[in-house]
Design brief:
Blueprint lengths: L2 H50 L4 H22 L1 H25 L8 H16 L1
Length: 129
């Protein structure tokens, strides 16, 4: 009978640790899911903003830069692979904005959209894992 209370307390302590770990993991997954949803929504909204505001190159540059900044902040909050993918997406959007600026200045430079596609794929993989 002497060992029984210690065993019960041990089992209760182990159960409490497992429950708090599960809640913590669940909380991280919820935060990651929200970050992924927010970043994807921001990316999908770019074309809507372009259609709603077709004022030319300056408007496009502004849309890409604002989306880049927003995605960078969301990525910093998420961290890990999601944050790294968000940083790459942010860089790709800034690169597109810079390319459009150069194009508007008469330089023969075209935006490299494939870097955005690759970054978005990395985000998808990070969000799925």
């Amino acid at each position: 009978m002497r060992g029984r209370p210690a065993r019960v307390l041990g089992i209760l302590a182990l159960g409490a640790v497992m429950a708090s770990t599960s809640a913590c993991i669940s909380g991280f997954r919820d935060a990651d899911t929200k970050a992924c949803d927010d970043i994807n929504s921001e990316l999908e909204a770019i074309s809507d903003r372009r259609e709603a505001n077709p004022r030319g190159t300056a408007a496009a540059v502004e849309i890409y830069e604002k989306a880049s900044a927003s995605i960078a902040v969301k990525g910093q909050k998420a961290g890990g692979d999601i944050g790294a993918a968000a940083d790459e997406i942010s860089d790709a959007l800034n690169e597109m904005a810079d390319s459009l600026r150069r194009l508007a200045a008469g330089l023969s430079v075209a935006p490299r959209r494939h870097s955005l596609s690759r970054s978005w794929e990395k985000l998808r993989i990070a969000c799925d894992s």
